[in-house]
Design brief:
The protein is built from 10 helices and 8 strands. It is α+β, with helices and mostly antiparallel strands and about 250 residues long. It has 3 domains: about 35 residues, no CATH class; about 120 residues, no CATH class; about 80 residues, Winged helix-like DNA-binding domain superfamily/Winged helix DNA-binding domain (Arc Repressor Mutant, subunit A, Orthogonal Bundle), CATH 1.10.10. The strands form 3 sheets. A 3-stranded antiparallel β-sheet has the order 2-1-3. A 3-stranded antiparallel β-sheet has the order 6-8-7. It has a two-stranded antiparallel ribbon with strand order 4-5. Helix 3 packs across helix 4 and helix 3 crosses helix 9. The longest helix has 25 residues. The radius of gyration is 27 Å and the shape is extended.
Length: about 250
């Protein structure tokens, strides 16, 4: 298709339209508009996946959203809120709409093993953080009582992507296991950067997980045992916790 400029018989009006080369040649008083230099050098959009740099940037944004939400919930929820309740609160807060309403599908509830766990919902309801949902209908409709959730940024679509990342926090993805271990892995993943060794304060780690330092150390040992972590160390002088991820295994030639 070409961009053609056609003049009417009086010469006082012009019409710009897309047409094929044959039609442009057969139409009188018509000239083809040539491509400009900037247009000829403009790269064509690729239908394929985004480049790796863009994908990694999106992962960084999702990690930041989850880290911010974990930090907020570390102060909004009672000190020793259970790990299962914290995992549920992360999903509800990130998926809430502008009226603080959340719709939770049956698949999401089954994947988090929360559909039959009424104690977790009661825990957040007793803390005044949400209203108990009507479990007779699906998807579950939940209303959050935390007004701060309404002031979240960025938009809901971006936050929903962060909620999905929180279910599979790369690079510390764990199979279905105890909520305490999954929450610890999520907090570590939210504080994992591009360096070979990663760190945060033990106080931050215990506050976001709702554990004591001794419990946190035991959970970190279990992550090493399951090879989710390569190693970890607590510097008691600075109170910093350092951890290393397993090295990716190189492929052996067949």
């Amino acid at each position: 298709m070409l961009l053609a400029l056609t003049r009417d018989r009086s010469g006082r009006a012009w019409r710009l339209a897309d047409t094929c080369a044959a039609c442009a040649a057969a139409t009188s008083n018509t000239a083809v508009v040539p491509d400009t230099l900037s247009g000829s050098l403009r790269p064509h959009a690729s239908p394929g996946p985004p480049p790796p740099a863009r994908r990694s940037h999106a992962g960084v944004q999702e990690r930041e959203r989850v880290r911010e939400m974990l930090t907020y919930l570390g102060t909004a929820l009672p000190r020793f809120t259970s790990p299962a309740a914290r995992l549920l609160a992360v999903q509800c807060a990130l998926r809430a709409d502008t009226r603080a309403h959340v719709r939770l599908s049956a698949g999401l509830l089954r994947g988090m093993r929360l559909r039959q766990n009424r104690d977790v919902w009661l825990e957040l309801a007793h803390a005044g953080w949400l209203e108990l949902p009507d479990v007779r209908t699906l998807p579950w409709q939940v209303r959050l009582l935390d007004a701060t959730v309404l002031d979240q940024a960025p938009g809901r679509r971006t936050r929903c992507r962060a909620a999905d990342w929180a279910l599979r926090p790369v690079p510390l993805v764990l199979p279905a296991t105890a909520p305490a271990l999954r929450l610890t892995a999520l907090v570590l993943a939210a504080h994992t950067g591009a360096r070979p060794e990663h760190s945060t304060d033990m106080d931050i780690l215990t506050r976001l997980c709702g554990h004591s330092p001794q419990q946190t150390g035991e959970l970190l040992d279990r992550l090493v045992t399951t090879r989710t972590l390569r190693a970890w160390h607590h510097n008691r002088e600075t109170d910093a916790v350092f951890w290393q991820l397993p090295q990716p295994q190189a492929r052996t030639p067949t």
